[in-house]
Design goal:
single chain, Histidine-containing Protein, Chain: A, four-stranded mixed sheet, 6 helices, 12 strands
């Protein structure tokens, strides 16, 4: 089991190793495996990458992202320019049902609204705009309204998917369903395993919400 100092050192090393992140402007503190990232990044995508770098380090139980996006002078754009670029990005993404998604831009932050059939479409919409110049934040309130399927079938399909996932020890995870809502319980060794279990669950037809109660074993 790693100490908090060891986890902190590994995160700092991993941030320095990641070419998409300027580690010089990022601070890391750790208490009982809970990580706090603070400082600033030059873009939203850099902030997003830094958070995922911390999550993939062994010994991390949770991450609190307090990083602030400070855009350089040549990346300052008006809301109208950002809205135009974001609309084009959504239009050109084949995974996004554009006619069902609306966006609002305010002070560089984009709010996504609407409804889609599958979670991957909701993720695709956010992925399409996160890396645009001038974007300081994204609030994704797109609702997933999948085709109906019986809860029993959902549970069985998810359990089979977890068994197939190479990074997941399916025997340590239990699945509950409440209609199209899925609740995951259990203990795993790493954050990456927890994320993989959730990813596999979202792929199941009929799922519109996930409550991930899987814990990172100390």
């Amino acid at each position: 089991m790693k100490t908090d100092k060891e986890v902190q050192r590994d995160i700092l090393d991993e941030l320095a190793w990641e070419p998409r992140v300027d580690a010089a402007d990022i601070g890391v503190s750790v208490e009982d495996g809970v990580v706090i990232l603070n400082g600033r990044t030059k873009s939203l995508i850099e902030k997003w990458v830094a958070e995922r770098v911390a999550q993939r380090v062994e010994g991390v139980r949770a991450v609190t992202d307090q990083l602030v996006v400070k855009l350089p002078g040549d990346s300052q754009y008006g809301d109208a320019d950002i809205a135009h670029a974001a609309a084009n990005a959504l239009d050109w993404n084949v995974s996004v049902p554009r006619s069902r998604i609306k966006l609002v831009v305010e002070q560089g932050c984009i709010a996504l609204k609407g409804n889609v059939d599958y979670h991957y479409q909701k993720e695709a919409a956010e992925d399409a705009i996160r890396g645009l110049r001038g974007v300081k934040g994204v609030r994704n309130t797109i609702i997933v309204t999948p085709p109906s399927i019986s809860p029993g079938n959902i549970k069985q399909k998810i359990e089979k998917a977890l068994e197939r996932a190479a990074q997941v020890d399916a025997q340590k995870i239990t699945v509950e369903t409440e209609g199209g809502k899925v609740i995951l319980h259990g203990d795993v060794r790493t954050w990456a395993e927890r994320e993989e279990a959730e990813r596999a669950t979202w792929a199941a037809p009929g799922v519109f919400a996930i409550e991930n109660d899987i814990r990172i074993a100390a």
